[in-house]
Specification:
With 188 residues, the chain is an alpha+beta fold. It folds into two domains: 36 residues; 137 residues, GTP cyclohydrolase I, C-terminal domain/NADPH-dependent 7-cyano-7-deazaguanine reductase, N-terminal domain (GTP Cyclohydrolase I, domain 2). Helix content is 37%, strand content 23%. The N and C termini lie far apart (49 Å).
Length: 188
């Protein structure tokens, strides 16, 4: 194990630092469970967005309208407090001869969500990856999340959503296309 890895012993020390007994029956297995959970929650670092977005050209040459997937689950952790934030993303693009499997958009969101994040950067990372790999005419991303760092400490504002968006390519200057994307992104 490298010195950089956080071990079960480190989790035991953290539990003890709270004044708890890490050998208490309810906590004995916690360090192993937390180690496994954090490996999952940060598994996005081991994924390559370019590999996730392998495009194909079959059938896309004729299609030039928005393709939108909405309701994509977002589960992430803020880099400031390591507190969870969660919600949904909408990802859309106008192809330029290449399309990607719809499940790949969900995987792309998950890849960036499973890193220590701020919502604003994650939104741009998703949009930029799509723009760079697919080279579409336009990309739009809207992310709506609740942040436990806001809800459970500090200002304590339960239920508030933070909404971020990224509009690239033709979505920036084309008001009609932008309006259509935002209407499609809106949940009923």
């Amino acid at each position: 194990m490298s010195q950089k890895e956080f071990s079960e012993g480190d989790w035991r020390r953290l539990i003890a630092s709270f004044g708890e007994d890490p050998d208490r029956p309810g906590l004995v297995e916690t360090p192993a469970r937390v180690t496994k959970a954090w490996k999952h929650w940060t598994s996005g670092y081991g994924q390559d967005p370019v590999e996730l977005l392998k495009a194909f050209e079959d059938g896309a040459e004729q299609y030039n309208e928005l393709i939108v997937v909405r309701g994509i689950p977002v589960y992430s952790h803020c880099e400031h407090h390591l507190a969870p934030f969660f919600g949904k993303a909408t990802v859309g693009y106008v192809p330029n001869g290449k399309i990607v499997g719809l499940s790949k958009l969900t995987r792309l969101v998950d890849c960036f969500a499973k890193r220590l994040q701020v919502q604003e950067r994650m939104t741009m990372q998703i949009a930029n990856a799509l723009m760079e790999v697919l080279e579409p005419k336009a990309v739009g991303v809207v992310v709506k999340c609740r942040h436990l760092c806001m809800e459970s400490r500090g200002i304590r504002t339960p239920g508030e959503e933070t909404v971020t968006s990224a509009m690239l390519g033709e979505l920036q200057p084309n008001l009609a296309m932008r309006t259509e994307f935002l209407a499609l992104a809106r949940e009923n």
